[in-house]
Design brief:
EC number (chain B): 6.3.5.7
GO biological process, one term (chain B): translation
Strand content of chain B: 5-15%
CATH topology of chain B: Amidase signature (AS) enzymes
Oligomer: heterodimer
Strand content of chain A: 15-25%
Largest sheet of chain B: 11 strands, mixed
Largest sheet of chain A: 9 strands, mixed
CATH superfamily of chain B: Amidase signature (AS) domain
GO molecular function (chain B): ATP binding; glutaminyl-tRNA synthase (glutamine-hydrolyzing) activity; transferase activity
Catalytic activity (chain B): L-glutamyl-tRNA(Gln) + L-glutamine + ATP + H2O = L-glutaminyl-tRNA(Gln) + L-glutamate + ADP + phosphate + H(+)
Family (chain B): Belongs to the amidase family. GatA subfamily.
Strand order of the largest sheet of chain A: 2-6-7-10-1-11-12-13-14
CATH architecture of chain B: Alpha-Beta Complex
Number of helices of chain A: 15
Shape of chain A: elongated
């Protein structure tokens, strides 16, 4: 059998995190009773007109700058005409002729080193509503709450060659966009959607094979599985002397199988033309500069800074920065506590542990950095010991409770009053003459027993180091 | 006194002076409309109850002194493609036979703020596509000057009800001449403002890049007052322009001394009716006698305006009218199998022939493979036409010409030959393509006694030039009323 390689290009839709829709002031909030987040504009009422949400352009430009794109200085919206009930105007406002960003790239790490994946363009468009089929009444209902939610579509060049590269590229994009705050990029909730264009060709061939487009990919795992399956399907066809048909296919991740949705012959003529209701988007250098100045520190830069400034290991820096949310918590905790190593430990060890056990996404972490910082201060000042601290951390993680208040209310503050401790220990020494004798006889174990007794007496709240110190002072006298 | 023979401003003054009550005025308009509608049929919907209610409210505001504008309390009519909250808005189409908008167009809100009492919605060519008001799904409107003739279109209803004095003024819309041509045919005055002057929010789109709402009334002063009330910068309309100046009344001056007027030779060639030509040239010499400098020139590109217009307007319309699909509002076919058939049947049954023709034309010119040859070429032509006007306005303050090649045709004459009907738009269409303001005002009558319109075109945002010239010309003649308007109220 010949050796084949895949040629893959991605079309990634990302729902932008604006408060309001792209062409009206309705909320973009997810959920809500059907058709409650709507107005004449996003339901396609006669006479209504779109007005562009500037924030959408800013997010699109920010993503474009982060992916090394040229920003189009004179960009336009076009109408994509097609009939479907989820699309209230029966045209989608999108960009075909003059998209906001073009000619970019992102760098991904592969086994054979750094690789550039070209970005053909990024354009802005509006999302459609949702159709709900009512089995009981045997009718289809439309919910326009999502109609007009802003999207950007990031179209890559056909530069990807494996499922692994695709996943790495998507993760890179996702992190960039999350760092920008432009979207939460959740594949399972549809705020990030990827369509995979895939063809195969013999290794070494120059021309492309016929490609298919795969839709309905709701997780990184599904994307991987779909790519592998489609590769095999195309190889099989070619090996059997058949041809690959240019078509759109739908992936069923439960059956691990795709089926044809529509072929090129059925492809609609969208009759794109510039939307006469919207003015061209004119981007000045000042506008680009202001976006540039507001670009956040991205992951690579953060990792470098954590290693240099905070002296934490690269591995730790990578884990923490794998989520913008965790990195934010980390940095604020460091800011408040002045203890990067401690802050890193709490996130790397305890936080990650809880996330793993509970199968939670890092984005769901909801405790405030100020509470973690307070916890670190409590340990630093010797008010609680590490055993107690772990217990307190779980409370912080679950309820975001103020640790100072919690240890106070639950009497967990460590005994560090030397006078009081001395009294307690003196009593223990007096009550255990045998152990004292053993200690003087050279039995180190006896000391351990006495420390244990002191801990018991103080209900675990005593500072073990202090107990040791006092005990030795008493015994040596 | 026959209240309805007054101009809008005269009526407004009498209301202010408590000589006429607002309810009394509304009732007069409603009574007269009821009496004449069986003949003229200028309205799709008359809203007697709503009109009386708002008349009472407005009277209160006038009495309190909170409403002091010159049009406060004057009854009026709105073209049926302009959304009115709670009041049926059909675009004279079956497909919107039951559409009651949950919002009012910004233009309507502006007029209401000025104290307008809307008595009803006027008939039009279906979705403003046509030049005769015969494509309406709700019957033809007749020309008050001669019932065998059309009122023109598409704002035929808005112009007919002003000529017949059912109301003293109305709002129309103009995409390719739809205010000016019926104004000319009905012997009234209408202004198509500079594109972007009046908000299009709530105007049901035909050709979005060409549509403008404007006033129709008995004279230039009324139109000017209405324009001042209806014009506004509107954030809800991205094509709305914040103008430096919204004062048009100051241009109501009887003085054209030194004003440079260009007459395009292109507008006086083949196809122009002799009576129309004579009346328009006579108007030009009157202005010349009053001190204007009148000169003939070659505008050029005139013959390309019609094809460019029908490509652009139809392309936009094919997309704008896609939303009428039976899913969300309006007409849905009673019987169908599945989604596709619901679309097909609802639209086939809901739209009339002329609308279907333009949707098909528009879909064709936007199709892949034809887009460059038709749509892009039309856009380039549009840009060249604008350049030709720019050149002309470097030399002239206004351009003077006829509104239409002929006076109002007989009912039924035009629809059989759509190309001929399209050619009738030759003098008005270029104005929309270039986004310019223009006014149509009466300048005489033909042998049959039908009114002839004079068109004055200004540069963008220079409404005041055409208003000044129109006002000056208007001072030289009496306003002519059709017989039907003079008849005693029945």
């Amino acid at each position: 059998m010949k050796q084949y390689e895949m040629v893959i290009g991605l079309e990634v839709h990302v729902e932008l995190a604006t408060k309001t829709k792209i062409f009206c002031s309705c909320t973009t909030q997810f959920g809500g009773s059907p058709n409650t987040h709507t107005c004449p504009v996003c339901t396609g009422m006669p006479g209504s007109l779109p007005v562009l949400n500037k924030q959408v352009v800013e997010y699109a430009m920010a993503v474009g700058i982060a992916t090394n794109c040229d920003i189009t200085r004179y960009s336009k919206f076009d109408r994509k005409n097609y009939f479907y009930p989820d699309n209230p105007q029966n045209y989608q406002i999108s960009q075909l002729y003059l998209p906001i960003c073009r000619n970019g790239y992102v760098e991904i790490e592969t086994q054979s080193g750094t690789k550039k994946i070209g970005i053909h363009e990024i354009h802005m468009e509006e999302d459609a509503g949702k159709l709900i089929h009512d089995e009981w009444e045997d009718c289809t209902l439309v919910d326009y709450n999502r109609s007009g939610v802003p999207l950007i579509e990031i179209v890559s060049e056909p530069d990807l060659r494996s499922a692994q590269e695709v996943i790495t590229y998507l993760e890179k994009l996702r992190l960039l966009i999350q760092y920008l705050g432009a979207s939460d990029c959740k594949l399972n909730e549809g705020s990030m959607r990827a369509d995979v264009n895939l063809s195969i060709r013999p290794v070494g061939a120059q021309e492309y094979g016929t490609r298919t487009e795969m839709k309905n990919l709701n997780s990184f795992k599904a994307i991987s599985r779909a790519i592998e399956a489609e590769k095999l399907r195309q190889i099989e066809l070619i090996e059997e002397g058949k041809t690959v048909i240019q078509e759109t296919r739908r992936w069923d991740d439960n059956k691990e199988y795709s089926y044809a949705m529509r072929s090129k012959e059925d492809a609609q003529d969208y009759r794109y033309f510039p939307d006469p209701d919207l003015a061209p988007v004119v981007v000045t250098q000042e506008w680009v500069d202001s976006i540039l100045n507001r670009q956040p520190e991205f992951r690579d830069a953060k990792i470098k800074r954590y290693i240099e400034d905070f002296k934490i290991p690269e591995y730790d820096a990578q884990i923490i920065t794998s989520s913008k949310h965790l990195a934010d918590i980390f940095e604020e905790t460091v800011e408040l506590s002045g203890q990067p190593k401690e802050a890193s430990n709490w996130i790397m060890v305890e936080t990650m542990h809880i996330l793993k056990v509970r199968e939670m996404e890092p984005e769901k972490v909801s405790f405030s950095p100020s509470n973690l910082a307070k916890l670190i201060k409590l340990i630093e000042s010797g008010k609680i010991n590490r055993t107690v601290a772990k217990e307190v951390f779980e409370v912080i993680f679950d309820k975001d409770m103020d640790p100072e208040k919690y240890v106070e209310e639950n009497g967990l503050i460590m005994e560090s009053d030397e006078g009081a401790l001395k009294e307690i220990i003196q009593k223990i020494v007096d009550a255990n003459p045998k152990s004292v004798e053993d200690f003087h006889g050279g039995k180190e174990k006896a000391l351990g027993f006495l420390v244990g007794q002191a801990m018991k007496e103080t209900k675990g709240k005593a500072n073990p180091a202090l107990i040791n110190k006092i005990l030795k002072e008493i015994l040596m006298h | 006194m026959d209240i309805m023979s007054l101009t809008a401003l005269e009526m407004g003054r009498k209301i202010k002076n408590k000589e006429i009550g607002v309810v009394e005025a509304a009732k007069a308009a409603l009574d007269r409309s009821e009496a004449l509608e069986s003949i003229v049929h200028g309205f799709v919907t008359l809203d007697g109850e709503g009109a009386i209610r708002s008349a009472q409210r407005i009277q209160k505001l006038i009495d309190e002194g909170t409403l002091t504008g010159p049009l406060a309390g004057v009854p009026m009519a709105v073209k049926d493609n302009i959304c009115t909250k709670g009041l049926l808005t059909t675009c004279s189409s079956k497909i919107l036979y039951n559409f009651v908008p949950p919002y009012s167009a910004q233009a309507v809100l502006n007029m209401e703020k000025a104290g307008a009492v809307i008595i009803g919605k006027t008939n039009m060519d279906e979705f403003a596509m046509g030049s005769t008001t015969e494509t309406s799904a709700y019957g033809v409107t007749r020309n008050p000057w001669n019932m065998d003739h059309v009122p023109g279109g598409s704002s035929g209803g808005s112009c007919a009800v002003v000529a017949s004095e059912e109301v003293s003024y109305s709002l129309g819309s103009d995409t390719g001449g739809s205010i000016r041509q019926p104004s000319s045919f009905c012997g009234v005055t209408g202004i198509k403002p500079t594109y972007g002057t009046v908000s299009r929010y709530g105007l049901i789109a035909y050709g979005s890049s060409l549509d403008q709402i404007g006033p129709v009334a008995k004279n230039v002063s009324d139109c000017t007052a209405i324009l001042e009330a209806v014009a506004s910068f509107d954030k809800k309309d991205s094509t709305s322009v914040l103008r430096e100046n919204y004062d048009f009344s100051s241009a109501l001056v009887d003085d054209v001394k030194g004003m440079k007027i260009g007459i395009p030779r292109d507008y006086f060639g083949q196809g122009l009716d002799e009576d129309v030509k004579a009346a328009v040239m006579a108007a030009a010499s009157i202005l010349e006698q009053k001190g204007a400098i009148v000169e003939e020139f070659d505008l050029s590109l005139t013959e390309y305006a019609i094809p460019a217009y029908y490509v652009i307007a139809s392309a936009e319309a094919s997309s704008n009218l896609a939303r009428f699909d039976g899913v969300k509002y309006g007409y849905r076919a009673p019987e169908f199998e599945g989604l596709h058939e619901m679309y097909k049947k609802s639209r086939s049954q809901g739209f009339g022939a002329e609308v279907k023709r333009r949707i098909m034309l528009g879909s064709f010119v936007l199709s892949s493979g034809y887009y460059d040859a038709y749509y892009l070429k039309a856009l380039r032509t549009k840009a060249l036409i604008k350049e030709a006007f720019d050149k002309a306005f470097a030399k002239y303050d206004i351009i003077l010409g006829p509104v239409a090649p002929s006076t109002a045709p007989r009912l039924g004459e035009s629809l059989t030959d759509p190309i001929k009907m399209y050619l009738g738009d030759i003098y008005t269409i270029a104005v929309n393509l270039a986004g310019l303001p223009a006014i149509s005002l009466p300048c005489g009558r033909d042998k049959k006694g039908l009114p002839i319109g004079l068109q004055l075109i200004g540069d963008c945002f220079k409404e005041n030039n055409i208003i000044r010239a129109a006002y000056s010309f208007e001072q030289t003649r009496e306003y002519e009323r059709p017989e039907i308007a003079k008849e005693e109220r029945r």
